[in-house]
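In this section we walk through a basic example: taking a raw amino acid sequence and producing a predicted 3D structure, encoded as discrete structure tokens. The instruction is simple. Fold the sequence below.
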Amino acid sequence: MNPPEPHRGLTAPRQSDLHAPGRPAATAQRRRTHPCPAARGTRAVPGSALAVAARQHGVLSWEQARTAGVTKSDVRRLVRSGEWGRPHTGVYSVRSLTAPSGPDAHLRSAAMAAQLALGPDAFAGGETAALLWGMQGLPRWDGRTVHMVIPALGAQRHHHRITLHSWQVSPGEVTTTTGIRLTDPGRTLRDTLLRVDRETAVCLMDSALHRGLILEEDTEELELANRGRKGCVNVRRWWPLADGRAESPLETRVRLICVDGGAPPTDLQHRFRDGRGRTIGIADFWWEEYQLIGEADGHGPHGLPQALLRDRERQNALQRWHPGVRIVRFTWQDLNRPQYILAAITRAGG
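The resulting token sequence is shown next.
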């Protein structure tokens, strides 16, 4: 892919272009026939610099820019015009490459910028690495701060919008994805679990298992590797609650309320079939005793018109082939009233 067309800015006029003392000002006709001095002095950004930024999620270091032929004067002009930003000292973001990005792309740019600012030994870890791996369950990223791991933390100066950690991480626990160095999924998970509450931790466990980032047989090893670290006793109690069948943090949180309230689901992702053995639908939760289906309706695909149509068709088919089955639905707002969730289940069983 060819790099984007470079933006052109303005520079100050050269001394030779200014009026000499006593020289009459140029006429309107002369001004129309000569290009403006500023335009003649503008230098295009080398395409090789833009190519480097494009490979690095829209950011590059001063050393990379200089090697590509960018001068200090170019940088001052680009920053002054707003075409380049400066997230960290010696690191620049190309606005044309980062402006249209969504939250995920913005996070990758921020992590890459932090990596360039801290040097080649730095890598993303903790919550930032979890988000980069796509683990679900953490609060929405604030759009500013990233978590980075770096050796010899005491020798490092403070960096705005970077939270530094000095965890002892073996080389085998660090990998690279899309050019960003970060802890591998297992190490990312065990670091992050020590820093969050139970509900968030189980959401992360479920998500990592569901996405195949870790395997069921890995969990014991991950738990043992965290022995002796602050918070590890709590995490040890949370691992038995993890279930990779959960497809969203809402499902995980509803399930935990049911477990705490003494009404755990009999099954997750329970499959219902018609008279020919064809799948009618898959329920998020199933209580065999109550012949009750539970559905977690988040803000995602369930709210789309096509999904509503499919949900209605599925419910009609369920009522036809499984007439004794009832359905309860829960939303994010219902998490604020756990007793309502438990009452909805027990009332359906009455």
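Looking at the output, two observations stand out. The longest strand covers residues 279-287. Residues 305-321 form the longest helix (17 residues). In the next section we compare this with other chains.
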